[in-house]
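Question (not urgent): is this output format expected?
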Amino acid sequence: MFPRKYLTLFGSCLSLVLLLNLPLQAEIPAVPDGVEVLGRGPLHEAYAQPAGAQAEPGPLVPREPPAAIDEVPPDQKPEGDTVQWLPGYWQWDEDRKDFIWISGFWRVPPPNRQWVAGHYRKGDDGWQWVSGYWAGAVQTEENLLPPPPAPLDAAPSVPAPAADSVYVPGTWVYRETHYRWRPGFYTDYRPGWLWNPARYVWTPAGYVFVDGYWDYPLQGRGLLFAPVAIERRVLEPNWSYTPSYVIAPDFLPCALFARPTWGHYYFGDYFDEGYSRHGFTPWIDVRIGGHYRDPLYDYDRRSHGREGWDHDLHDLYRGRFNGDVARPPHTLVQQNTYVKNTTVNNTTIDNSVHANKTVNVFKNVTPLAPLNNGNRQGMKLAVVNAGERQVFAQNGTDLRDLGRRRQASETRVVSAHAAPTRPGDAPHALKLDLPPVRQPLVAAKPPAAPVHERPVVTPTEHKLVTPKDNPTPAVVKKEPVHENPLLRHEVPTPRVKQETLPPTLPRPVTSATAAKQETPPTMPKMPKHEAPPPPLLKHEVPPPVKHEAPPAPPKRETPPPVKHETPPPPPPVKHETPPPPPPVKHETPPPPPVKPETPPPPPPV
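Got this back:
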């Protein structure tokens, strides 16, 4: 028999191992000297960006960012041929009054999209961050437009046709010489797919329009690595860094904030009241245009069944704002200390008023996990050998070089020409040399793009005409369809195989059809193409959708023209006057005989 104290010690250690869900032989990665792993901070822009924000210049920061560090990809990645390594970048941290490094990460890119990295530009009073964006895979130019008007704060004009309908907000689109409003519309909820609404990106040389596109939900986009604070003393030319701690995907819904003015989502403890005054908004409270939920939250809300999941999540945020529920630690050191000093009972930390609910409190206070514990988040990792790591590193270098070329081109436009800063200014076009693709671009075949309604045209405007210098978008070569391994167990099997019948385009909802569509049909009908979507700009290349051409109607043989000979005039017809009818003799009937009247007798004498 073992002494009681040893059994107690063994039970505590075993509980800690179970809490971290680590194998007993797993080694916790060592953190390099001069590096602090953070449990809160911005999410990488290529992972997610707030939707519905008015494009405007980013805030100024007082210091110049350091040079980009030599970042080496880790030796493990999520399974799949389409996974890419996207490099990290510096971001200003207001609490530290210094820059922190937003680590690179593994990403399953949106179908037929390539990442255009952001960059810093020097202003008169500081440095500004110019956001990156997902461009079309065959995009060759960056169209710099004048500033768009403020989005219209308009609620849907008709009710949703179904309980699971998703509303796509309207947006301004630039056509010919000015902006026109493209109204919002409803589309169907697609399990495993999330529609990113159209948005504008500010640059010092103009505004870039990024049209809407299909992307994966948060749990299927890749593997995020934690941001780090790096001391300046270790930033030497030969110094390199390899991320080793990931942000647990199941933690993000429990502490996620949107900050549109800075163009980033933030994770972690931003529950103090002062953060709300600086633009931090919980993603559960975001309302785009005052009416529409955050697309990421709206998708998770639908996929989890709304009521119970949504109710518990609101209780968790409310408890953290009030101080009734433990808030997440700010660093890896604080997280390890918290785990060691917390009483453990059946692998669940019972320190919350929500312990009797489905909310796993321990999961909610451990934002970080070692990379070798990636299977805890439902992801199967594959080993990356030295040669593959070099290829992925080169891909990150190419993307970073693209950001530098983009910065130089925008600077030349500002120096040589006046940037389009007013609505009537002419747009500029910059050549955009995308780096060579080293991995397949299509991880899975996305649904057809929702059908947009035509922009509102004022009575003085004429029919929309595509500008002459805007050629027809090139057709993207069809790539083989691959399964997204990160969504392998989350996406339900579609009712109809895509190989036999591709999904149809959702029909825009109008006031005339809203009342009829109480229940969505099993297979929606093809929409009428009486009002095709407006022509795209040069840089707007939506995911290619293969439409089967309808059978051509049978040709009608045109009969030879028939010569119509003028017939000769008919001979004159003699009209003989008929003889007058014989006079009718009206015989007067003889008068009746007159009866002689008898004279009255004479009067008597």
